[in-house]
Design goal:
The protein is an alpha+beta fold. The chain has one helix and six strands. The strands form two sheets. Strands 3-2-5-6 form a four-stranded antiparallel β-sheet, with no helix packed on it. A two-stranded antiparallel ribbon has the order 1-4. A hairpin with a 4-residue loop joins strand 2 and strand 3. It is globular and about 40 Å long. It starts with a helix and ends with a strand.
Length: 97
Amino acid sequence: MKRLVSFLLFLLAAPALLVAQSTFGSILGTVTDSSGAVIPNAKVTITNLAENTSITLQTDAQGNYEAPNLKAGVYQVVIEAAGFKTFQAAKVELAAR
């Protein structure tokens, strides 16, 4: 009986032991110029190439940006800032977390 109770308690606890996997990932970075100085307020456009959907965001005061909870896939990242040439990363592969 004691073994049965222990086994049942284990079965009840087992789902809590499983680690959930996500099907999403994040693209993040810091935009800098050729001297390494950060570029705040740069426009960052991230496009899912398979779905042809985009999100646009701006870098913060430290030049950082983050696009969380993106589906796994291949993306294009375009960065634009006044006074700078446009940067484009054509095929950024994003894996799920």
